[in-house]
Amino acid sequence: MAAISLRRVAVGTLAGGVVWSIWSTVINMVILEPRYAAAQRAGWLLAKPRYPFFIPYWIILLFVLTYILTWAYVSVRSAFGPGPITALRVGFLLGFMCGFPISLSLATWAPFSRVIPLWWMLDLWAGSILATFVSAWIYKEA
Fold first, then answer.
1. How many other C-beta atoms can be found within 10 angstroms of the C-beta atom of residue 19?
2. Do the beta carbons of residue 122 and residue 73 sit within 8 Å?
């Protein structure tokens, strides 16, 4: 088994995190913004966030999640082989864990449209797949 290249894990994390941040921004600022405004008018979402620096926190969180996904990919590539199929599997499985349960709960119990948690799930699930795919594409054994 080859040594893990910490530098390449870091570079893969940065690239995957950038891709996921762009994906998340498109979902939240383009697709969901009108729905957020409607939910805020109805009183179902706060007009101002509880955490004033939520957006930077969210972006940092996406990079942390990408780091975890990159490590998971690097850890399983010796068992399942390196490459895009393994990366897609890791992103698909961990993205499902990350995005589906809370989105199902919100779609069931929150008073706002089910479309909002659907897109939140897609943000986390598809974002995990994209980030893992990109980080795996960049990662090469040391």
1. 18
2. no
Average pLDDT, the chain: 95
Residue type at 7?
Answer: R
pLDDT (tens digit per residue) in 21-30: 999 999 999 9
Tokens for 92, please give them. 């698909």
Q: How far apart are CA 25 and CA 56, in angstroms?
A: 12
Helices (H) and strands (E) in the chain, counts: 5, 0
Closest CA to 36 of 128, 117, 101: 117
Question: What mean pLDDT comes out for the span 83-109?
Answer: 97
| Alpha carbon distance 103, 110 (integer Å) | 10
Let me know: does 116 contact 35? Beta carbons within 8 Å.
Answer: yes
Asked whether 139 and 75 are in contact (CB, 8 A), the reply is no
What is the arithmetic mean of pLDDT over 93-102?
97
* Burial annotation 20-53 (CB, 10 A radius, 16+ → b, else e): bbebbeebbeeebeeebeebeeeeebeeeeeeee
CA 100 to chain centroid, in Å, comes to 12
